[in-house]
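WARN no homologs supplied; continuing
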Amino acid sequence: MTWGFGYLLIFLGGFTLAMVTGVARRLLHPCELCDHVVLPSHEHLHGLRFPAADLLASFLTLFGLASLLVHGLTSFAPIHEIAVGAVAGVVGIFALRFWLSRVCDPSEQLANDLQKVRVIREIPANGYGQVEVSVEGAQLKLAARSEEDHPIPEGTLVEILDRQESVVIVKASEER
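OK structure emitted
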């Protein structure tokens, strides 16, 4: 077995793993990963965004592809081909982690523009309910808390004042 054939097998193994685990689908349609979920706090979101199979699939695919390209296009020694492949694999892991971590976290959009959103589950006085927020085209359901002394009924427009973990703090909007 030649080095090139070995790199090809590694690439195909990683690519197959990416197809089976859905990494490719999540990269092409990232909002589907977040569609209609109540966003958990960031400590729990890590496992949802980046399972171990995604890490392995991205490393193997990029390692195999980069090593195969270096093997075919240059006259590097096998140790240098492996080093280039390893660097490409590690860069791929961090690129995938960055891509998937920003997809489901609405904190930037919620911090940048105070949205008016609709209550989908009544928010009792000083209690918790639920609102629906549009983030990058995906509709997310978030836990909502109000510090007002009266309940906010379902269907009311509210303004997002702040976000603490996965809970948004809201107040009833002037317009109903």
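The first helix runs from residue 3 to 21.
OK
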